[in-house]
Amino acid sequence: MVTDIGLRRGAMDGRGPIRGSARLRQKVAALCSGAGAGSDGSTPGVLCEDDVLITQGAIGANFVLLYTLVNPGDHVICVYPTYQQLYSVPKSLGADVSLWRLEEENGFVPDVSELEALVRPNTKMIIINNPNNPTGIPIPTPVLASLVAFAKARDIVLFSDEVYRPLFHNLFSSSSGDADVPPPLTTFGYPRVVVTGSMSKSYALAGIRIGWIASADKSIIQAVASARDYTTISVSQIDDQIASYALSPPVYAPLLRRNVGLAVTNKALLETFIEKHKGVCSWVMPLAGTTAFIRFTHRSGEPVDDVRFCLDVLRETNVFFVPGSKCFGHGRDFKGYVRIGYVCHTEVLVEALEKLEAYMRVAFPE
């Protein structure tokens, strides 16, 4: 098994390269440069290996990046809803955080024109999550271009958590054009863009705990690398080599095709369920990632108490949902929404939806 994935015994004898192996950083640089699936990193692109820092998962990447760049008194703008770390960490570091709310009426796509009312003279960073958790909505290319132009005109760092990239559901669709799949933010020509990513989501390799930070701004990478020295000497060499193997040409496309196929298959099952119960639940259909943000209402149209709803579903069916207002809305926003992680083994989702179907008949009678 070790021989099959090309693990090198000698690499296990000591700590690895501090910033991550050259082999892995080349592959990540190729991904962040918009290279094709499974590029070996040998073709010059937007980024090179020196523009990449390997971390212990995206959660480690996000934290060390924010810890390095955000200071007390800074102002940060962050999309909302999103992964809580992205706005809670800046706040804990003494920054003033403005939440840039995504609206269902706009398909959960950010409205760049709203930034004029949010930006301040001391705005240090704008944070996005693309594709978004919990909505599963990617930001279209024209919107990204407008966002980059806005940040560039004001010399603001633009940080994109791209942990769910490239799990776009139309990635292998014969009818989809390149314009339907937004490129990495690092390809838009603005050096003060920083992206983070991981092997955990799109590649379904959460167990190896490999993430990264990438930016064309070498001063940012150097500053983050210096801060990272206080927490990490190097990532696991086994993890590093497995990640390199997963991103290699023979493996990358089949691995991603498998995961995209699972997402598309399972989303269709969830769509059928929502359509059947459209009197009490609705969504903006996710186009990427593994999560959906679904709104449940009573027959009257009033949103359910999502916390009580999730607890009741768990108690009655052993099916676990994440309450939107509690986990993504500070207990006040996104009432009635629940996040569902649906890209699991299909038979698991089928069983969960069958149990939920029985629950719905009792909880939401006609």
Q: Can you summarize this structure?
A:
The protein is an alpha/beta fold and 366 residues long.
Describe the structure.
This protein has helices spanning 22-32, 57-69, 85-92, 115-118, 141-154, 218-228, 237-246, 249-276, 306-317, 324-328, 346-363, and strands spanning 52-55, 75-80, 96-101, 123-129, 157-161, 193-198, 211-215, 281-283, 291-296, 322-323, 337-341. By secondary structure, the protein is of the alpha/beta class. The chain has two domains: 9-247, 3-Layer(aba) Sandwich (Aspartate Aminotransferase, domain 2); 261-363, Aspartate Aminotransferase, domain 1 (Alpha-Beta Complex), CATH 3.90.1150.10. The strands form two sheets. Strands 1-7-6-5-4-2-3 form a seven-stranded mixed β-sheet, sandwiched between helices. A four-stranded antiparallel β-sheet has the order 8-9-11-10. Helix 2 crosses helix 6 (218-228) and helix 8 runs parallel beside helix 11. 45% of the residues are buried. The mean pLDDT is 94.
| Beta-strand segment tally | 11
- The main sheet orders its strands as 1-7-6-5-4-2-3
Name the helix and strand elements from N-terminus to C-terminus, one letter apiece: HEHEHEHEHEEEHHHEEHEHEH
Characterize the main sheet.
7 strands, mixed
Characteristic terms for this protein:
7-stranded mixed β-sheet; Aspartate Aminotransferase, domain 2; 2 domains; 366 residues; globular; Aspartate Aminotransferase, domain 1
